[in-house]
Amino acid sequence: MNEPLVDCEGYPRSDVDLYQVRTARHNIICLQNDHKAVMKQVEEALHQLHARDKEKQARDMAEAHKEAMSRKLGQSESQGPPRAFAKVNSISPGSPASIAVIQGLATQVHAQGTRVCKWMMRLWSSAL
Length: 128
Description:
Elements: H1 18-77, H2 96-99, E1 108-111, E2 114-117, H3 118-127
Antiparallel strand pairs: 1-2
Protein name: Proteasome 26S subunit, non-ATPase 9
Domain Nas2 N-terminal: 1-51
Region (Disordered): 50-90
């Protein structure tokens, strides 16, 4: 690509086809220029993509923060106790609950503003 096409006296070299070499060099240089242009477009597109993603992430975080704050305010203003989240209908024989002899304690009670099963309360208190 970079070797001269003339000899030391300035005459065209006789060992190469000058037309073919010049045409090949021209095509290669054109392809290199096209490649540079495409890579520049890809780079700009990636910068735009990441900028949009960063803006979207910032908007999503702000929206999540607003939603969390509104839920926190809504919970403090609500007056009723929270609804029960679990109810035990039965305990299978051989299960951990059966082994721990807590079958008779699976009645619902109202504990600290939340309806919880007695056996769950005992498990929580023993875990703490």
